[in-house]
Amino acid sequence: MLAAHLPPLAESLFSLLAICSLLLAFVMLGSRWLKDYLIAFAAESWLIAILSAAVGYYGHYTELYLIAVLTALFRGVVLPWMILRVVVRLDVDRELHERLSPSKSLVIGGLLTLFAFVVSNHLALDLGVTGTIAVLALTVMLSMKLIGFLMLSVRGEAISQVLGLLVLENGIFLGSQILVPGMPLLIELVILFDLLVVVACFGILVRYLAAHAGATNARALRKLVG
Q: Which of 72, 164, 182, 215 would you call most buried, defined as having the most Cβ atoms within 10 angstroms of its Cβ?
């Protein structure tokens, strides 16, 4: 495992990028403004792209340079631009149907991160990689997945929910770059292009929702049933 045999400089760089990505997930969790979500998601995607390039450099995985470029392009530019077009067209600036306030969401997010840290320590002990960056990678990956699920649960706007889904996927992608950087290139490309299809379908769904249900709240989907 690459994470268990890294020089100190590489470990510090990977740790910084992973922690900053997690902090940006908390920025999204603690904000009501949809454009803040987009900026934080784009910045998080760029950090993951830099991480991919760094893993490719230190691990000698040349295919990760291509993944880094595609991640920066699609996750950091194209996806935020596509979602921003939907936000501007629908004239929706902020989350209006939240089930929990941002402050309470941040507290729960912190508890979920603590839970992820405990689980990651146990997993690292079983795998024999305690004291390495693998513990941090597992913690950040699980934390971002849990924060993504939390956003799906407590945010009402359809746009917020799709961003929660993207945060969840970013966590998986970030963890895989550190823990299993040798993952086949084809699988990573399929994941990237699948996201484009998901966001494109989401844009069509939200416009249809606004036109026929008169709202962008995901709960209004019930009105479209039958």
A: 164
